[in-house]
Amino acid sequence: MHRFFVEKEQVIDEIIEINGTDVKHIKDVLRLKPKERIEIASDGITYTCEIESLFKEKIITRIIDKVKGVNESPVDIILYQGLAKGSKMDLIIQKCTEIGVKEFYPVATHRSVVKIKDIKKEQSKVERWNSIADEAAKQSKRDILPKVQNIISFDEMVGILKDEDNIIVPYEDEKGNTIKGSLESSGIKKMHLIIGPEGGFEPKEIEKLKLIGARIVTLGPRILRTETAGIVASTIILYELGDLGVI
What we know:
Elements: E1 3-5, E2 11-12, E3 15-19, H1 21-29, E4 37-42, E5 45-54, E6 58-68, E7 76-82, H2 88-99, E8 103-108, H3 119-139, E9 147-148, E10 152-153, H4 154-161, E11 167-170, H5 179-182, E12 190-195, H6 203-211, E13 215-217, H7 226-241
Parallel strand pairs: 1-4, 7-8, 7-12, 8-9, 8-10, 11-12, 11-13
Antiparallel strand pairs: 2-3, 3-6, 4-5, 5-6
Helix pairs in contact: 2-3, 2-7
C-alpha cells in the first residue's frame, strides 16, 4: 500500500486532504482511483484511507482505520552534515532517512568544498533535499517525515548545541574513543551526530566542539568518505540504542 505524509491540520474528523506534489503523483503516476486505499502518516499516527475524490489540486480521502506508528526508533538522531559536493548530500539524506535519522542540518564548515552564497540557490537545494527525504521516508515506511533544515554555519551549529547533551563527532585523528564506548546510558532519547565535509574538520573546530561537551570518536582504522561516515555512525547508534537489528 502506498504511503504519504500530511500535516496534522489536514486531518479533520474522518477526512484527510492531500495536496501539493503528491496530488500529481497519485493521479498521473500511480493512477489511483476512487475506492482504492492508501496509507497516510501524520504526527506519529498511520491511517488507512480510502480515496473519495480526486481534484486538480487536492485529493479527499476517508479514514478507514488508524494505529499508532511503530516504525520509528526510540532514539532521535539529529545529523549535522558538513556540506558535500555533487550528489553526495542527496545520498546521505536518502540513506540516513531510510536508516531512521529524524532531522538534518547541512553545515558549512571551514573546509567545505561547497560554498553557497546565493539565497535562492540555497533554498533550491534545501527544497530538493526535503523532496529526497520525503521519497525515502515513503519507501522505507517511516511514521514521520524527517526535516532538512536550512544551511547553517559551523558557529551557528555550535550555538544550537551549546546546551545540549549526547553530541558525537567522528574524527579521523581520534584513535581511542569509540561510539559504543561513548554511549553512557541505554536510556538516551536524542543523539546529535556531527559529520565533517570531504576535507574533514580543522583542529580548531574540534576544540570548539570539545568545549561544548562533544565526544570525539573513531569509526575504526579505515578513513571513511563523508557520505559513508554519517550512514555508518547512524547505524552504530541505532543498533546500540535503537531498533536496528530488532525484530
